[in-house]
Amino acid sequence: MSRFAEIAPPLTRRALLGRSALGLGAVALEALAARERPATGCHHAPRAKRVIWLFQNGGPSHVDLFDHKPRLAAMHGQQIPDSVVAGRRFSTMTGNQQARPCIGALAPIRQRGESGATVSTLLPYTAAIADRLCFVKSMQTTQVNHAPAIQFFLSGSERPGRPTLGAWLSYGLGRSSDELPTFVVMTSRDREASCGQIFYDFYWSSGFLPSVHQGVKFRGTGDPVLYLEDPAGIDRGLRRDMLDDLAALNRRHLERIGDPEIETRIAQYEMAYRMQASVPELTDLSDEPAHVLAMYGPDVHRKGSFAYNCLLARRLIERGTRYVQLMHAGWDQHRNLYTQLEVQCRDTDAPSAALVLDLAQRGLLDDTLVIWGGEFGRTPFLQGKLGGVDQGRDHHPYGFTTWLAGGGVRAGHSFGATDEFGFDVVADPVSPHDLQATILHLLGIDHERLTYRFQGRRYRLTDVHGNVVRGLLA
């Protein structure tokens, strides 16, 4: 064996790449070192410090909830003009459907507050805070199926493998708490389990970013996070000693290999140790005043419900979590629109409004951005047979509504417009990339400058697209 081999361990290809010019490992380690510090990744003064995305899986019907279209009601039961739908792509459920009768909104849509924003009577609590909201009525996307459409909104790509928004924020802005994860995900669904929506792990993936930026999923049943409990006979001191020894072994391995994922492993062990104390305190709602619990509705006491998750989201951001992604399934009303839409509204309306009001009352809304919306809307025409028992609406990517609150957006404002059928955007279109660019802008980030080099090119959340929508800014 050569003298050089005796004093220097052999370099693998991964180690060489990891050490060259300090490598990507140094970038990852720098991000991991972010602790209780300002967001040094900001490119300009931020308006928001944190984000809560109330993602409504399945596609809420914009023409039933927000986008008032008298023409649809006037033409109820009549065929939508071929000139409107010609050449458009729909899901396989209506792709070959010959009759496409217009159907008006299921319940009255009325003007609300001083802003005059239009909101359905199915959403009375959201209607009551309309002057605090910014309605984007000109969202549009390219995807007609759930998983790619959701992935497009959350990662900027319809294909799995890219980092999601929460991971980008963790990477770009660093941690603001040592006690809880930077990026937390919670999921819920309607009690009836009325649709087959699946919560894929890639909806909160870190993609090609170091896995320390991966979203941490809090479960709705049992322990919120698995394996936080110590085994019988292991006390806090013994656990600390074990982790110290394990960290020492991992650091030795890191010095030899140079793989940033080893540092991620060390950091995640430490986070789990701290979460043993922080998570039980977080999920103990006994200190919440009765009037606050009442705002979120009776479902707030049911662990794993949308209401419970909304309250937990507020408690998370109070304790330093930067990005909370709540995903609620059940909006996919292909054949049960006349029964299930009302159920979905009842489950989500009060908690969504309560979260906005709760943040405002605590002085947190000004620098917390709340987003409510799904991956697309629903067709203005009927799926199924008029008068049948299985009436509904199909997926509709060509124009739909999302609302924003707090975090520097323009309150009491409706932006953009669709045509008289609620079919096509006719003013101020907003794509998922535009929305992503605007979210990053509100957080002090130039979406064109937040990049990560992977496989020979620099990637960003918005890929090569996206513009900040200035009309949404306060």
**CATH class assignment:** Alpha Beta
Note the main sheet. Answer: 8 strands, mixed
Structural class: alpha/beta
Low-confidence stretches: 1-9, 19-40
In CATH terms, what is the fold-level topology?
A: Alkaline Phosphatase, subunit A
Provide a concise account of the structure shown:
The chain is α/β, with parallel strands linked by helices. 34% of the residues lie in helices and 15% in strands.
What does this structure look like?
By secondary structure, this protein is an alpha/beta fold. The chain has a single domain, classed as Alkaline Phosphatase, subunit A. The N terminus is likely disordered. It is built from 15 helices and 16 strands. Helix 3 runs parallel beside helix 11, helix 10 runs antiparallel to helix 11 and helix 13 runs parallel beside helix 14. The N and C termini lie far apart (69 Å). The strands form 5 sheets. Strands 6-5-7-1-8-11-4-12 form an 8-stranded mixed sheet, sandwiched between helices. A two-stranded antiparallel sheet has the order 2-3. The chain has a two-stranded antiparallel ribbon with strand order 9-10. It is globular. Helices cover 34% and strands 15% of the residues.
